[in-house]
């Protein structure tokens, strides 16, 4: 199918051609005609599938057709969970809108509000925003939402994970009831379904990737590795397999900084982004990475949310996420817009439960390899051998290893910790690190 067949105006087709897009992606093919028809829509699509154009193009078309009455005020609102995603959506929207007369602006926290207020005062047709700053400016009476006729909730699952439900409901209450609603989510929990019922009216459902599944263009691989040898393995893979750029995920902010430093020490350029860095530092890190000044970007889940890094060949889960859904989000950073990608997970013995949770969620067993020299063999004790089981821990074994599910679980709580170093998103969702009693039995398997 070509873009010409989707019912888009010549101005939008010209902009799309200028971007170099030759044909619509599956989500664009399905969503654009539906959104143009005026229906509410619930779409399961991850960043990287071309979803941004699938809602921004029809919004631009609708708004350019409607005559402007009176003062220019926001007629479309796009809510995103993070500043980076808001900035990305805004930049895409501007390129698609370049041959129209429509104006858009982006609003997010962490930066001075004055330029945003000035932009609103000039009059805008489309506002892209994160919930907190939007409400902040609304409360200061810098914008009205009474003229909104199209509303997009992007990455709704992540919004809820970040605790934005209250803000979203408040924002919805400030808009006119008669409007078109579009909601995007990569995963569908019970909470998301409830939200869907509350504000979408007879939505059409578009599924480009089945809920909670991973993009098929992505090759997934796991390496069994000692925790202490993960950096060494990463550096070896980067060098020996001559990787280009890679995005590497860690679970904690501190872990991101640490890893980035160690990669630099190995002579590979690297930068870390996480919630403790200022907006300026995050923007610069991302810009340097995009310009290929930096080879490795180390990120926490929250910081990486919505990053648009085209054709990223490698994504590495240096630590497995303790929320299974985050795995789906993370590996959505590769294999973008039809390009092939590889998602590699480093699994240390204490992360076996996380791996099981992820595999259950995606309904797929990730092929695992044991790279030579990177995993200490764990032999069964005589007693366990007699019982036909794996052995318990040796006294001098590192604590993390003793707690692994492979063997030797001591009955301590294995819930993901509330460590403040872990970025906030982990507060909700499926916790795959929670050991059920049956998980606590010593396992016959060892590596
Ligand atoms: P998104 O999922 O919206 O973040 O888009 C991911 C990437 O795909 C962005 O870099 C877009 O510029 C790009 N893209 C979107 N639509 C197309 C298309 N039809 N053909 C090629 N690339 C596209």
Short description, anyone?
The chain is α/β, with parallel strands linked by helices and 447 residues long. 36% of the residues lie in helices and 14% in strands. The chain is built from 17 helices and 14 strands.
Poorly predicted ranges: 390-418, 425-447
Give helix % range: 25-40%
Radius of gyration: 23 Å
CATH superfamily annotation of the largest domain = P-loop containing nucleotide triphosphate hydrolases
Model description:
With 447 residues, the chain is α/β, with parallel strands linked by helices. The chain has 2 domains: 205 residues, Rossmann fold (3-Layer(aba) Sandwich); 152 residues, Rossmann fold (3-Layer(aba) Sandwich), CATH 3.40.50. 36% of the residues lie in helices and 14% in strands. The chain is built from 17 helices and 14 strands. It has a 7-stranded parallel β-sheet, sandwiched between helices. Helix 14 crosses helix 15. The longest helix is centred in the N-terminal third of the chain and has 15 residues. It is elongated, with a radius of gyration of 23 Å. The N and C termini lie far apart (49 Å). Bound molecules: adenosine monophosphate.
